[in-house]
Amino acid sequence: MPEETRRAPVPGEIEAALDRRFTRLAADHEAVALDPPYPLSRDFLDRVEFFTSFPRRALSAGRTGSFLPPATCYRLFQALQGSGLEAPVVATLTGPCFRREPRYDEARRQAFTMREAVFVAGQDRVTELRDALSDASLSLANELGLEARLVEAEDAFFAEPGRAKRLLQRLLRLKVELVAPVAGAPLAIASFNLHQDFFGTRLDITVGGHTAWSGCGAWGLERWRLALEERWGPDHRRWPEAVAGVLSV
Amino acid sequence: MSGVSAQELETRLLRFVNDHLLPEGVEPVDASTPLFAGGRINSLRLLNLLAFVERTLDTEIPEEEIVMDRFHSVRRISEAFGRGA
Fold first, then answer.
1. pLDDT digit string (tens) for A200-210?
2. Are B50 and A197 an interchain contact pair (Cβ–Cβ within 8 Å)?
3. In what helix (H) or strand (E) does residue A231 lie, and over which residues does it extend?
4. How far is it, in rounded angstroms, from Cα A46 to Cα B74?
5. Maximum distance among all alpha carbons in chain A?
6. What pTM value is reported for the model?
7. DSSP label at A174?
């Protein structure tokens, strides 16, 4: 589309376009759209050891024992507590996430939006979907002209820091991040995680009578916009047609 | 790298995996069964497995030597870290 006929950008428009693209990517990997309820209970966050792994990160929802989601997939896991599933659940959901951080900047916010695809199945299926989704996300980033790459992260969310955590990541590739340059440094714009049976065991979720394994892919909408703006400038009317075309903006 | 032979390590490791490591109801493995398939080994069990190997060898394995290719099965672990490998 010629530049002069493209509309001026409206705040949030690029994030919405990205979200549509990620939703399609998730659907291409069998995910059905769900919208599990807010907020999260203290009991749930206790069961998934959130307060131990991330002390003081949770933001209260204003009522005692009620918290805003620090990650989108938690809402699905809360909804699945105690479920004996007959078949795997492959779902996609989005929503605002809230985290108390030691410091904030444009790439690390108190509130941000995360689209996720979540897989609750057996080990092999979960691993297969996680790997397929990370590869497809890298391809999408390349289509958008981002100089992105997949890297192995060392902060799988549930292991204690130190040697054990490094070894687990080394052996099991629990967390893979898609990074792209923002402000001259690599920024994680998506992560692809294997939870193993962490949620299945703690939340008593089974699939076909066996403890569920799970994994997820998470795309940070604001961070993708920052990466695109870093690459192509703040005004999407000046972005190459091919890039704008991928997002239909 | 150790005073424990590959054969001895395999025997002890196999006994440990089948008697103590695998969750209840899971079929026992043999020395060549892939350990990291079918939900047999989660993070906690993997750390227990590593600890058992290091305790048996009486040494801390350098991190750079801990790669998945060497942990595929009981036999692979034994060949990689037992004496005479």
1. 999 999 999 99
2. no
3. helix A221-232
4. 36
5. 59
6. 0.86
7. -
